[in-house]
Write a structure and sequence with these properties.
With 251 residues, the protein is of the alpha/beta class. It has one domain: Class I glutamine amidotransferase (GATase) domain (Rossmann fold), CATH 3.40.50.880. It is 26% helix and 25% strand. It contains 7 helices and 13 strands. The strands form 3 sheets. Strands 4-1-5-6-13-12-11-8-9 form a 9-stranded mixed β-sheet, with helices on both faces. Helix 3 links the parallel strand 5 and strand 6. The longest helix is centred in the middle third of the chain and has 17 residues. The two termini are 28 Å apart.
């Protein structure tokens, strides 16, 4: 049985981990309107890993004052990145949120410039790639011939991935991992400074990273959905702790 967040609470202050959110129409109680929201699994994963999650609304410009208070950043999943950001026309199956793109691209630029540890999940990995000049496959079934990566019905698919020996990802997950996925897009042309460090059997990119320091890792799958395996979240939380220490902040 997975331990609760309180069971794993660190003895000292928790690194502060910002997690980007969605702006979507939501219905609850008597209300039906646009809301800033995030699946609880992200916050739970950060808590179990020893971090303090802070939810970041992706509306308006990215604020440097927010980044100054963070020790690490998680870019969450969600709608497709607008292909206008990488010079392409939209595929009929592409559904984007341009306001979120603008906010998160600004946030990511600030984070990378500050050396903030970044864990980018699903859409987040795609955004990371686009931010560094890369492009995306807009609809994987056109390439791989199946919906294996996005089964539908709110059900995550389980996929085996091979991880490059010697990579940061392999140091966390080992050289083979079974992961949960729900995506219909993926990295195509690689962004500047990134390396592909994991693929599934058909060659689809499943993880990218920036070699060396600081911690910058994008995964196409959804580690927040597996409560029995917090290794990626523990890794970014510990990187956040080290980042705080380097700035003279005790975590």
């Amino acid at each position: 049985m997975a331990s609760s967040a309180s069971d794993l609470a660190p003895s000292g202050p928790r690194p502060v981990v910002g997690v980007t959110t969605y702006v979507e129409r939501a219905a609850y109680g008597v209300w039906d309107h646009e809301a800033t929201l995030l699946p609880r699994t992200y916050a739970d994963a950060v808590l179990r890993a020893g971090g303090a999650p802070v939810l970041l609304p992706t509306i308006g410009p990215a604020l440097p004052e927010v980044l100054e208070r963070l020790d690490a950043l998680v870019l969450s999943g969600g709608a497709d990145v607008d292909p206008a950001n990488y010079g392409r026309e939209a595929h009929p199956r592409t559904v984007s949120r341009p306001e979120r793109d603008a906010s998160e691209l600004g946030l990511l630029a600030l984070a990378l410039a500050a050396g903030l540890p970044v864990l980018a999940v699903c859409r987040g990995a795609q955004l990371l790639n686009v931010a560094l000049g890369g492009t995306l496959v807009q609809h994987l079934p056109d390439v791989v011939g199946s919906d294996a990566y996005q089964p539908g019905g709110g059900v995550f698919g389980r996929v085996a991935v091979e991880v490059a020996a010697g990579s940061r990802a392999a140091g966390i997950l080992g050289e083979r991992a079974d992961v949960l996925c729900y995506h219909h897009q993926a990295v195509e042309t690689l962004g500047e400074g990134l390396e592909v460090v994991a693929r599934s059997a058909d060659g689809t990119v499943q993880a990218v990273e920036r070699p060396g320091e600081p911690f910058v890792l994008g995964v196409q799958f959804h580690p927040e959905q597996d409560a029995a395996d917090d290794r990626l979240f523990r890794a970014v939380v510990e990187a956040g702790r080290a980042h705080a220490a380097a700035r003279g902040v005790r975590r």
